[in-house]
Design goal:
Strand content: 15-25%
Strand order of the largest sheet: 5-2-3-6-7
Radius of gyration: 20 Å
Helix content: 25-40%
Structural class: alpha+beta
Shape: globular
Largest sheet: 5 strands, mixed
Order of helices and strands: HHHEEEEHEHEHEH
């Protein structure tokens, strides 16, 4: 565990991940959702009170509870393995053997370094080896892994690894193009820049297959 505060700030400000897996404690789910909400509510109250906010005002008195519920049930709900989407697969009886691409999947996540939004699009593809998955399941997998404090590189890898496991093939690819509000709204405050990450498995490591995928999603990027 790194304890040097300046070094930790340097890692966070430069958005460097230290683990390919989300750093979740073993006892993370010993408490119920309601217990977590009650605890977080008190923490948010303390933050707002410390900032000088008047928690008796009608506009803000419900904010701690709203934020706590949002953290547990919505934007960080993907931390809970019980909320992982079931991914029913089907036999590829019609023998479709070409690339299947689901592009422009809307993505909302949260940067684990500053707890600010990551907003963008995910583009996912696979080549069936005899098994197919419902199109909506691809969106749900993206959404599940996005709903946690994240690093974009890790998120891209997790989406590919999960689909590889579900489909029983290495031939899966994912590209994410997203804006990070920790870059756009603070720090350098560059509102135009976005971050592109990719993960290519199996046949997608071949340049021609990879280029076909990138042409489908009309992303002119040299990988």
């Amino acid at each position: 565990m790194i304890n040097n505060e300046d070094f930790q700030d340097e890692l966070g400000n430069n958005h460097i991940a230290t683990s390919a897996q989300n750093p979740v404690r073993k006892d993370a789910f010993d408490s119920s959702d309601e217990e977590k909400i009650n605890s977080i509510k008190k923490d948010v109250e303390n933050i707002l009170r410390t900032l000088g906010m008047d928690l008796t005002d009608d506009s803000i008195k419900g904010t701690p509870n709203r934020v706590a519920k949002m953290f547990v049930k919505e934007i960080f709900g993907g931390l809970n393995p019980n909320k992982k989407p079931s991914s029913s697969t089907f036999q590829n009886n019609y023998k479709y053997g070409e690339m299947l691409v689901e592009k422009n999947i809307t993505l909302y996540s949260t940067c684990e370094h500053h707890l600010l939004p990551i907003v963008g699009r995910a583009h996912v593809a696979y080549i069936s080896n005899g098994t197919v998955v419902g199109l909506s399941k691809m969106n749900r997998i993206v959404d599940y892994f996005a709903k946690r404090p994240q690093v974009q590189e890790r998120l891209t890898m997790q989406i590919v690894q999960e689909l590889q496991k579900v489909l029983g093939t290495d031939d899966v690819a994912c590209v994410i193009d997203a804006k990070h509000l920790c870059v756009n709204s603070r720090g350098i405050r560059d509102i135009e820049s976005s971050t592109v990450t990719s993960e290519f498995g199996g046949k997608f490591k071949d340049e021609q297959t990879r280029r076909e995928f990138l042409d489908y999603i009309r992303l002119d990027t040299n990988f």
